Amino acid sequence: MQSMLSRMIQLLKLCSFLALIYELACADPLNDPPDELCSSTSNYTAGSRFENNLKDLFLSLSSNSSFTRFYNTSSGNDPDRVYGLYMCFNYVNGNDCQSCVSLATTDIVKLCPNSKEAFVGEELCQFRYSNQNFFGQLNVTGNIPKQNEVNISEPQLFKGVVNNVLSNLAKKAAFDPNMYATREEPFKDDTIYALVQCGTDLSANQCNSCLQKAISDIQTCCFFSVGARLFSRSCYLRYEFYNFYQVLPSSTDNMNGESSVRKIWMIIILTVVPVCLVVVLIAFVYWLAMNKKSKKRKNEIATQGPIFRTVHGQHNTDFQHQNFQGRNEQQDQELPYFDFASVSAATDNFSDSNKLGEGGFGTVYKGILSNGKQVAVKRLSGCSEQGSTEFTTEVLLIMKVQHKNLVRLLGFCIEREEKLLIYEYMPNSSLDFSLFDANRREQLNWSRRINIINGIARGLLYLHEDSRLRIIHRDLKPSNVLLDNDMNPKISDFGMARIIEGNEHEANTAKIVGTYGYMAPEYAMEGLYSIKSDVYSFGVLLLEIITGIRNAGFHQSKRAPSLLAYAWKLWNEGKGLELMDPLLTNSFSSDEFLRYIHIGLLCVQEDAYYRPTMFSVVQMLKAQTMTLCRPERPAFSVGRFTDHYETNPNSCSVNGLTSSGVLPR
User: Fold this and answer.
1) Which is the catalytic residue, given 475, 493, 534, 581?
2) Active site residue 475
3) In the chain, is it the N or the C terminus that has fewer CB atoms within a 10 Å radius of its CB?
4) How far is CA 530 from the centre of its chain?
């Protein structure tokens, strides 16, 4: 009951907050028409090839704007080729981004008719095109500052605080993967809300330079105003006395003006209050029903047969409550608990004939349940380093994530020293089983390899950004990618995965686990891991998939210390096609092959900052016309690679490396 009252209070606070935002939105004098920069020296004629290319460019940019907040591409061939990009501000959702970009394509033609080079700044985005390639090039000329008409009472004091806030944000954004940063700074009885953002085609130094010039311009013209913003061709900044980047206005604001803002917010307020009350009532009824249901379930569990056995003298339900805290009774029931006897019978008492593979934390067996369903059973070894903590981690993580490119956990079992995980069965085994065998690799034609790469990328993107948690896998390698009937990839083995808090970008550990050859250098040497660690592993995996060459042990060929070093050398010499798997001769596109090498090298750059996020990687894989920046030097690993435990297999290992399975699972 106390919990329900707390939720009711929170909902009422939300209603009050929305009312406050309504007042601020109506008072905001910055809902102005778009601002533009037009070329006065270069024009195109109506009906020309340049105009047709420009229309095609607009369509391409608009079609991508619901998927990504930054996108650049070109259309046509020289001398009529046209380059363009848009940058939606990072707090904008996909629908509003698309609406803003569509509006910008209309406004830019009206404001800069027949111009071969133009820029327009809208409320939620900025848009630019040119007949010259400007991608990755800094341009701080013609910055457009805008200021609020209301003046501050102490402009010099305010100027100093704003300058400090924006300068710190500029440095932060320059080293942020999305080149975006926000900050809230107290000022007397108010709070300054500030935002800066750069185009992600810029380098860190370029981003910082652009923002420093923007700060200088805004401090010169607008320091006496309570709010201001500045449009630049390469970056953007804004600050206000209200939180403009968390409460997003409707995408129609630009079209209908200030009056539409008032109407929309009035509708929202009049709608939200009754909805809040209805939600509170429904939540209260639901809580009563679930409370009754959970009590009933506990009574049923107490009278169940041998399926609920003891774990070191504890009832299994007690174990679940202790190790799965924070999950309600209904969620606990979503994952079936298997009794040990039924799992043992399904695997023919864990016979060697059913063994699919052996890993650092135990053995995987094929099993057939009593209903005829095929499963893969991961049996953790008695001396496995994956104890209750890692076991709980894997169960919890896989229960919380559901994606077509992640392996599905069907259930688990705990009995005395036994800890078992029951997965869906993958008939085509793990990726390394097919990829590193010359005969089996023939079934991996170019289109299948591209499908596998894209599936792994989408699975990682889900873990990093789209799931309820930000999850770092930490052990991505071919043996941890399983293939289903149609050779679609599914990422598996989450025992080493870690959750990163929403505001954190990295963490560190004194216990290094994973597989050398796939570990990012900052993780292997310093224990630092982040989403960029998984990006590195993905880059290694991508290069292995398209070349058919295993990174581990590559140094033995004496061609280079690693596959990464060899790929870097050939790519720089313009000989990237020499990396081609001979089995792909009749099924691949040379341009696409070189592009994938390029993307792989971007992922394995030595400095984690320069590696793209998986969101950017998915966009690069999908958009063949997207311009790719030049990769920096990758991390060159020299020495012996290993992919197995180095101690006596009969003893308890303390090595953090994991091993590969080679049979279907």
Assistant:
1) 475
2) yes
3) N
4) 11
